[in-house]
Write a structure and sequence with these properties.
Length: 423
């Protein structure tokens, strides 16, 4: 038995060379996990910065059209026609993501929200019903409740972790269940086996927004989930410099989504795809460091007298610790916590004082990049609400979301230590 540095990974000698490529290798090399050659021997996938593709002559065009209609020539399937129908740089990243998630195929979008809205618009019709879990990305909830509602598509919000409630919410017209895992900001983790069991019993398709996990920490398709969605703006690209979204799943579903993407028009720019591929190559290393730092931060905060409560799936105190340990290879890079109340000061101000005292993390929305980011959700996503309205949806004024970057763990801990001393 060879024990690797990562405590989650052990490999027996007999397995070496026989097992499927690991995700660190797949992140670097793509599907086969081995070096591959490009037409011009360049190491890097070329950036095909083009809006359209040419045909040698009308016979070439005819051959392409015939193959498109009848699927006769598989080599033609990958040929470019027009930018909205595909791009080789984008395609390369899609294959890499499919390999990482153990899916047949993947489809990229210009943002995570474009991925979510395209999937829901493509898979639902008027009269259908969709179930989503609470503690989800706010725009996803708003899209389900308001936008889909206008199109005659019903939705029901179910509390995260309430599987009886989830099953009871399924109606004869329910088509989809969509949930995040882990969720934002409380890092709740869906029991994927249980979700799939319920959904299959009622012939409902399941979608997991796995942005917070990445395929390094969790691969929902292995559990029977139908589609995995990512905001690739976050960990997958990893450098806070591009926006992108991804959907991964079985080839028939992805093919249908690709058809509707060609109509709805939300395609990823090739240059963003080029940067995304570059980012994905270091995904495994970045996530490893973010997992380690976050666990250390969560442990530190949980024992700190000025911290009221910490949410991190790697903590025994987290409601989903057990299921996270069973189905994930790491607990992720986000830690949420509440600053203890300071007598005579309102929690909004004392928490802001703590955030302002931190020196390493930038104050910004988003997560998943190399730079640590910190935010007070009450002042960011939920600013227009009153304290009472925020509390009703579970967002306290003293809540902090810390998205940990790849800085030295010891520097992050020291920064927290000095900032908490000022609270
Ligand atoms: C950021 C985020 C989204 C939206 O992605 P964009 O790339 O910003 O459009 C969706 N879901 C989760 C969990 C996110 O964190």
């Amino acid at each position: 038995m060879i024990r690797l540095a990562d405590p989650f990974t052990t490999v027996t000698v007999s397995e070496i060379g026989q097992q499927q490529a690991g995700n660190l290798t797949k992140a670097v090399h793509g599907k086969m996990g081995m070096r591959s050659s490009q037409p011009h021997h360049e190491l890097i996938t070329p950036l095909a910065q083009t809006a359209t593709y040419t045909f040698a002559d009308t016979a070439d065009l005819r051959a392409f059209m015939e193959s498109k209609m009848w699927g006769t020539d598989p080599s033609m399937a990958e040929r470019g026609e027009y930018g909205r129908y595909g791009n080789p740089t984008v395609r390369s990243v899609e294959r890499r993501l499919a390999a990482l998630e153990n899916g047949d195929d993947a489809l990229l979008f210009p943002t995570g929200m474009a991925a979510i809205t395209n999937v829901l618009l493509s898979m639902l019709s008027a009269g259908n019903h969709v179930i989503f879990t609470d503690d989800c990305y706010r725009k996803t909830r708003q899209f389900c409740q308001n936008f889909l509602g206008r199109l005659g598509i019903e939705s029901t919000q179910v509390a995260m972790g309430d599987y009886e409630g989830l099953e009871a919410a399924i109606q004869t017209n329910t088509r989809l269940i969509i949930s995040e895992s882990p969720t934002n900001p409380y890092l709740r983790v869906v029991d994927l086996d249980r979700l799939v069991h319920i959904a299959r019993k009622h012939r409902v398709k399941t979608i997991i927004d796995a942005t917070f996990a990445t395929p390094i920490n969790q691969r929902p398709l292995d559990f029977g989930i139908d589609l995995v969605i990512h905001s690739a703006t976050k960990y997958l690209s990893g450098h806070n410099d591009i926006m992108a979204g991804a959907v991964i799943g079985e080839s028939g579903l992805i093919h249908a989504l690709r058809q509707s993407q060609g109509m709805l028009g939300g395609v990823l720019d090739p240059h963003a795809a080029y940067l995304l591929e570059r980012g994905i190559k270091t995904l495994g290393l970045r996530i490893g460091q973010q997992n380690r730092s976050s666990q250390a931060v969560a442990n530190y905060l949980e024992s700190h007298p000025k911290i009221q409560r910490v949410w991190y799936p790697g903590l025994l105190s987290h409601p989903d610790h057990k299921v996270s340990k069973q189905q994930m290879d790491g607990f992720g890079g986000v830690v949420s916590f509440e600053i203890g109340l300071v007598p005579g000061e309102d929690p909004l101000s004392s928490t802001s004082r703590f955030i302002d005292a931190m020196t390493i993390p930038y104050i910004a929305p988003s997560l998943g990049g190399v730079e640590s980011l910190i935010e007070q959700p009450a002042l960011m996503s939920y600013y227009e609400f009153s304290t009472q309205e925020r509390l009703a949806i579970g967002i306290a004024d003293n809540l902090v979301r810390f998205a940990i970057g790849i800085e030295d763990t010891s520097d992050i801990l020291a920064d927290l230590n000095q900032a908490l001393a000022q609270v």
